[in-house]
Amino acid sequence: MTNTPRISTPLDRATLRTAYAAALEAYLIRPEEITLSGAYELGRQALHDGLGPLELVSLHESAVERLAGFLREPDHPIITRANTFLMESLSPFEMTYRRFLESNVALRSLNEALESQSRHTARQIHDGAGQILFSLQLALAEVMARLPHQWKPEIEKAMQLADHLDQQLRGLSRDLHPVALDDLGLNAAVRHLLDGVATRTGLKVAFHSSVPDDLPPQITTCLYRVIHEGVTNVVRHAHATKLQVSMERGQEGVLSTITDNGIGMADEATQPHGLGLRGMRDRLKGLHGELELQSSSGAGTQLIISIPFAFRENANGN
Ligand SMILES: Nc1ncnc2c1ncn2[C@@H]1O[C@H](COP(=O)(O)OP(=O)(O)OP(=O)(O)O)[C@@H](O)[C@H]1O
Ligand SMILES: [Mg+2]
After folding, report:
1. Is the CB of 271 under 6 A from ligand 1?
2. Which of 44, 61, 146, 274 is a good FRET partner for 178, with 20 to 30 A between their CA atoms?
3. Looking at 36, 67, 101, which one is the last position of a domain?
4. What is the pLDDT of residue 273?
């Protein structure tokens, strides 16, 4: 058995290369379980050190070149042995990839469960508490109409409180789940969101969409949430005068952009750590989607969001 290093600190490439060649040589000379375990250990070390599978294959190729003496005869069983060693060293990558797919499926189920719970609670507030409150507002208005003049200021105060409560409940319901998404569909819900932003902030807003309303519900909810956060960030941080939102349907999936002409950011890593951008990436990851952020100081920001249609098949590893 070679002196294959146990995983501790990262190894430099030259040391890893030498260790790989030594472990491969040991296995070629003595093809047993114990020497083969060197391949697995090296694969783990490479994974731990941040190498990709292609870099590991390149380590393997240079080790094979160093051992060219063994390989003079092309039919020599050693070639098959070297391949076995390579496959074994790649198995930690394979296992990590499978775990990644599994955790993606788990993440998506969790997101769906949370979303479904939020949708239920939002409906309860919107249709249940909201409608009782509406009846209360009507009752107060009726009392107001019948009362003598000197009592009206008191009832007016109560009516203002009820209005305030109504706004709070609507805000809460909207944050939990965009009921507008169920009632209006994706396109009208995004337009409604942007109209509200334009009215409240004075931002000049442009919206273009070629996506249908009947996308899979996971994509619709994810896209709406991500656009909502992107637009909220523009309002809160960008100091922009213009905002452009697009949603395009492509062959493979949906592509959406959110562009502002605001202050931009020099480097995302140096920005205050909020939950927004991280939450967007987590949501998208669950659907094998991606968020790309293009920005530089003073030159505005563009978010490019992509979500593939084939997320279900990919999640099963097909
Ligand atoms: N469109 C934008 N223009 C300029 N800066 C931005 C823009 N979007 C995000 N940022 C910067 O990136 C930071 C991180 O954004 P993120 O949404 O993750 O967090 P947040 O908005 O600060 O807080 P949270 O979303 O958790 O309420 C922001 O604080 C801001 O500095
Ligand atoms: Mg934010």
Report:
1. yes
2. 274
3. 101
4. 77
Ligand 1 atom with least separation from CA of 293: 8
Tell me if 244 CB under 6 Å of ligand 1: no
Q: Which ligand is nearest to the CA of 271?
A: 1
Instruction: Please work out whether the CB of residue 231 comes within 6 Å of at least one atom of ligand 1.
Output: no
In a domain, 201, yes or no: yes
| Residue whose C-alpha is closest to residue 43's, from 25, 20, 10 | 20
Q: What is the pLDDT of residues 59-106, one digit of tens each?
A: 898 888 877 666 666 566 777 888 899 999 999 999 998 888 888 888
Is residue 144 in some structural domain? yes
- How many independent structural domains does the chain possess? 3
Last residue of a domain, one of 47, 75, 101: 101
User: 215 C-alpha vs ligand 1 centroid, how far in Å?
Assistant: 28
Q: Is the CB of 269 under 6 A from ligand 1?
A: no
Q: Does the pLDDT of residue 243 top 90, yes or no?
A: yes
Q: Is the CB of 233 within 6 Å of ligand 1?
A: yes
Among 205, 231, 233, which is best to mutate for testing ligand 1, by the most ligand atoms less than 8 A from CB? 233
Q: Read off the pTM.
A: 0.63
Q: Are 159 and 137 contacting, i.e. CB atoms less than 8 angstroms apart? A: yes
| DSSP 8-state symbol, 286 | H
Domain residue limits at 52:
13-101
228 CA → ligand 1 middle, Å: 13
